[in-house]
Amino acid sequence: MKPTYSPDIDYKGTMLRGDYDDSITPPADILGFEVGYRVASSVQITQAVNTWQGQSDRMKVIEYAKSHEGRPLFAVFIASPGILNKLDEIQSDIAKLADPRSTSSGEAKAIMDRLPAVAWMAYSIHGNETSGADAALASIYHLIADKTDANKKLLDEMLIVIDPLMNPDGRDRFAKSLEQYRSTAPNVDNQSLLHRGDWPYGRTNHYLFDLNRDFFYLTQPETKGRVALINKWRPQLMIDGHEMGSQDTYLMGPPREPLNKNIAPSVQEWAKKFAVDQSQAFDQEGWRYYTGEWFENWYPGYSNYAEYRGSMHILYEQSRIAEDGVRRPEGTVQTYMESVHHQYVSTMANLNTLQKYSKDMYADYWQDRQFLVSNKSPYSDRTFVISNTTNQSRLHLLAEKLLAQDIEISVTTKALSFKKALNHLGKRVTANVPKGSLVVLNRQPEARLLSAIMEFDSELLPSVIEKERQEVLRSGDSIMYDTSAWNLTMMYGLNAYTIDDEITANVAAYTKPVSAKNILNKDAIAWIVDGSDDKSLAFAARLMERGVQVRVIDKSSEFNQQKFARGSVAVTITDNVSNSDLITHIQTSADELGLKVSSITQGLGDGELPDWGGDHFVLLTKPQIAFVSQANTSSYDLGSSWWSIDSNLGIRHSHLDGNSLNSTDLRRYNTIVVPSRWSFSKSMANTLLDWVKQGGTLITHNRASRALNTHRENAAVRNVDQIFEDAEDFNIALQRRILAEEAYEVTDKLFASGISSEITYPWAGQGKPLKKDELEKRDDWQKLFMPAGAFAAGSTDQKHWLTFGVNQTLPLLYRDQAVLVANSQAEIAVSVGVYEDLKEPVEREDYLSWYALPLDKSLHVRMSGLLWPEAANRIANSAFLTRERHGNGQIIMFAGEPNFRGATWGTNRLWLNAVVYGAGFGARYNINL
């Protein structure tokens, strides 16, 4: 159904104003409508670009990726034929200019004199923010077809790269919803589904990732291909066309504070000059706009990551207008074509500004690159060191992400020790790192981006912190648009240090490791893969999919003089005596994952370590996995968890409609994951809890954990605001856990025959417990200050199966999420806070919250990001990951989202342990499919 005309809306005319070449097909002849009249689908955009590529010598198309659903992503290079014929030479010159260590100032001047300006114009990374991609079509046509002298001069002096279709999967999802909700008469009500679309909406890609948060995490194919091409061309200008609320106007750069200090000052100055020209272009049209206000540049994971590499970045935010137009507060109707026109005019204005200032911008770029590699650089005398680990998959994945950003890496050639190294807890320690540790000098050409993603804390101005706190108190809102912590080593859960020196001795250039080549001993009694490597879970899961019986060793072990970490995966001949394809299955699974398999010929563990017939060899149950999905579910959390299953494990699973669980046969599944969701009905809770009683493993995230607890009475795990009536019971449970980790001094008094009057109780001297009303008031106050995203220090129970493959101290990304506490009837696998012994005991008058701190200890909570003391106090000693028995099954609760943006590999390992091993560890559930 095509939209019909409305007397309220002016559809006449077009934004394209030029003297156009008749040999270039106008967009309307390809689309069937004028640009901006309707939303062009990804197929139509691709068709237009392919048509024009065959007609014009002013453009060249490079496909840089395919989406998960198989749609092409491409960059359109536009310039005069003379420039397009020299792309290889231009790219070589750009690479030389980027590295002053091998380019002289004289050579650099010659390069800058001959280089064209380079612009990268990108649109609609959020699929339901459609006007940008349509403006890209208009821009491509204008640039290749316009015959005016001004346009010819522009193309003689500039290489313009247009990325018109950044998220084709999301765009087509939204375009389909437009078709579904289109009516005969135009609908200008922005609350209508015509304008909003359906859950999970078109913003995200196939796996429901926000691609505009993935520019250094690099998890999705769209981003990987895009970043590789952007980095190759190092554009002077990069724009990113978005949309915002329907009743808004138009936002353009420059951004306001907080600004990341790693962005070059010259880039920030150029932002002001571009804003002048862009605003004048809007003034000439009589269009309203604003700069900054809500947009800041602190988080470096947007498309503005290119600013840290020296590009000038501009954000466009156009009010979101669907095809029928939207009635504005002043009573007028803004059309979709007008929205597209705004993006088009912005594009041309920015290109004209770049044409004017390109040479000066190159000069600033060259000067900054020289500065970055000099000994005067603020990045000199600083090195990031990431300790080598037996979890080789995760270590080398981090190296892969750094190399993708042209960041140079070395490895230590022997074990080294560094004094006064800064660790993740912000403490100066002696760092002993093994051979093979990653070494990353901060003084290198990409020093700014490297610092932004690897420094443990991003510095905020005191004035910004003051303003943030005032805003939190005034309205409960934040002036910061995204998470305040993102350090890659913390995201990956790897031990890392900052060294105040340049480490150049005893290091060698990093090389990617070669996958293990396994020759299996067919006469072995067992085959083992070390459990410290994340890929061991995929090995176990894929073997179970192939009908192999698999065990996990829940304690460190040693066989045939080979040591294995707890969580190692073992396949025994006795479990699989009738499987004639056993060796083939083991070989195939290991080769797919690049894992080393050890063939074991002895079942007696060396020393006191486990033997192969004991309880420490736990037989797994093949997971039959389902996600609870659809409305009320966080699409981001669902998507990243879904992607984790597919990308890490590659095994089958189902998505269930959460609104119809009562009519779903849950007996088909032994593992159900409930991602964060905004509501949890009583009937839904009862359905799941009844299923758990029969032996199921229920895994809940964030709000789902919090919501489920509201439907459970006397549960062992509760929300913090549910325990104030009996807070002291939970405090005693906490003291038990703390003391269980302590050494116990055996004295003669232990064997005395009389009654001792010197028994010390853990709460003695810790102050007075707070009463319920005081706890409630404090909690209400502390809630105001919960972070948008900060790293808290997590302590992991290294004897629990859920913590296979993670360190004792694990960074936990905390947001405004569930705060869980548990009594002694539940198992806490990960808690918030790292205890440290004090030199002198400290007595306190009152408990800090529901808990008391031991007199002889301090508790470290914050690792990175803005974590107000009130919030740190609230989450301290809470549980991030719990396991609780319920009937024959178990409930595993995460306080947060363990798969945040597909990049929190430390907590992702916890989640994969729960998903793959949960049905075998702690649940008794038998199903036959």
From TrEMBL:
Keywords: Hydrolase, Metalloprotease, Protease, Zinc. Its cofactor is Zn(2+). Residues 53-236 form the Peptidase M14 domain. It holds the Pfam family Peptidase_M14. Belongs to the peptidase M14 family. This is M14 family metallopeptidase.
